[in-house]
Write a structure and sequence with these properties.
mainly beta; Methylamine Dehydrogenase, Chain H; Immunoglobulin-like; 2 domains; six-stranded antiparallel β-sheet; 3 helices; 44% strand; Secre_tail
């Protein structure tokens, strides 16, 4: 094949994988194109037909701290797809990682230290796939079919995976091990995960969040705490010692359908829970529940909140004072959680305009943690959506390069940031590995700035200067 022919094929490939929508579609008059909305614009939609012939499921994001590029990792019944969303108006489908053992509706993914970890349910000997995400930097002829870098075969089928980035442990849940309870996996060598035991005493766990606790319960600050959604109750575990897990408490609630998934507030005080079948079982409008975790040994129910339709809520994620609720046929709902006793909807983007019925179509999950502010949604029927809050600035690439040095790195207490020649440091932002902003300093206007990191948990962070250039920082 001649070089001209190869170039022509590459151009044709780019056109073949371009999204249906190639420009920003603002939310005007309650619609962004054909999609109902309130306060959120449509940046792009990469349809399911481009990515897979099967239904979609989970989604997560990865930010390459070396290149500052943002990627959507979206799963389908038969594969995991990788999409460069750095230019959110023109996402680029880079390729796919096929299933390790056939097709099934449930395939979940999380990220740690530049590696993706993928599990699947009801597919026999699938195991946990490991994929080195830095391979996405060098895709010259997309879309490419990838193979896994490794597979953990100590498990076969698993419903879900949660990762605590602060400790480097994965928690596989709903597996064929430990009665469906959490199966611990050590990711200290990200390419070569090692099983580290598990916990079976409370039976099947459907989903979980694990944190280094930094909430109001002083007795447990600094411990590794797991919040497990266990079908009919929430179970709180101290998993600091993997060989001696301590159950702190469990709590249920009235009108239990299926205790599905939830997420802590940033201050670790409140837990927001979605029950997946209460709309079906009891005829409720979309119902979410709030629990007060001021005392981890004795949590309490605080309040509930309801939506405007009877759509089924699925996955919840919090960021600041906002709760992002993927609600199947009602799409993505955004709620104000500044007052946990009075949670109210403040915006939405409906990826399933046909109806808000109590059925399993539409938005499966959401990832709201990119530093850019762009939000990615996985839709069972319509593939990948990229949206952004209306009225916010769209940056498809970094502002002009800002040269700076940062030392020491790794840091324990402080790191010094020195601006390059003829430059001043005006703004410093620090993001954790999920893209959550954890520190911000403004109006600095200095050549040299001392960044205090003593209050940050150990781990990897991204330091962004003047909203332009970023570097990775390790905190010990």
């Amino acid at each position: 094949m001649t070089p001209i022919a190869r170039n022509l094929l590459f151009v044709l490939a780019l056109f073949s994988i371009s999204p249906l929508i190639a420009q920003i579609v603002p939310c005007n008059g309650g619609f962004a194109g054909s999609f109902p909305c309130n306060g959120y614009d449509l940046l792009s939609n990469l349809p399911k037909s481009t990515l897979s012939n099967e239904d979609g499921s989970d989604i997560w994001g990865w930010t390459d701290t070396t290149t500052n590029k943002e990627y959507a990792l979206i799963t389908f019944e038969d594969k995991t797809c990788f999409v460069d969303v750095t230019d959110p108006v023109n996402p680029l489908y880079l390729g796919e990682l096929p299933s390790n053992a056939g097709s099934n509706f449930w395939r979940d993914i999380k990220v740690y230290n530049n590696h993706a970890y993928i599990v699947a349910d009801n597919v026999g000997s699938h195991g946990m796939q490991v994929f080195d995400l830095t391979r996405l930097r060098n895709v010259s002829n997309p879309p490419q079919i990838f193979s896994a870098d490794n597979v953990l075969t100590d498990v076969g089928s698993c419903h879900n995976i949660a990762i605590n980035e602060a400790t480097g442990f994965a928690y596989l849940v709903g597996c064929n091990t430990f009665s469906g309870g959490p199966h611990f996996v050590d990711l200290s060598d990200p390419a070569n995960p090692v099983s580290a035991g598990g916990y079976a005493a409370d039976g099947y766990t459907h989903d979980a969040q694990i944190v280094i606790y930094n909430g109001p319960d002083i007795e447990h600050v600094g411990k590794e705490i797991m919040i497990a959604s266990n079908e009919n109750e929430i179970v709180i575990l101290d998993v600091s010692n993997k060989t001696a897990v301590v159950k702190l408490s469990a709590i249920s609630y009235t009108d239990v359908g299926y205790t599905h998934q939830g997420w802590l507030s940033d201050d670790h005080r409140y837990f927001y829970l979605g029950d997946e079948t209460d709309e079906i079982d009891f005829g409720f409008n979309t119902r979410g529940l709030v629990f007060d975790f001021a005392n981890l040994d004795s949590p309490s129910f605080l309040s509930s909140f309801t939506g405007n339709s009877n759509a089924i809520d699925h996955n919840y994620y919090t960021k600041g004072n906002k709760l992002y609720q993927a609600s199947y046929t009602a799409g993505l709902r955004i709620l104000d959680i500044s007052n946990p006793s009075n949670v109210t909807e403040i915006g939405f983007f409906d990826t399933h305009p046909e109806s808000n019925n109590t059925t399993f179509f539409g938005a499966w999950s959401v990832y709201p943690y990119f530093a850019s502010g762009n939000i990615i949604i996985s839709d069972i029927d319509r593939g990948l959506f990229v949206i952004k809050e209306s009225g916010t600035t769209l940056n498809t690439q970094e502002s002009r390069a800002f040269d700076f040095m940062m030392y020491p790195n790794p840091a324990t207490e402080n790191t010094m940031i020195r601006a390059g020649e003829n430059m001043l440091i005006n703004k410093v932002e620090v993001f954790d590995i999920l893209g959550k902003k954890v520190l911000e300093h403004t109006n600095i206007n200095e050549i040299l700035f001392q960044l205090h990191v003593t209050k940050l948990p150990s781990g990897m962070y991204v330091v962004k200067i003047n909203e332009a250039t970023s570097q990775k920082l390790i905190v010990n």
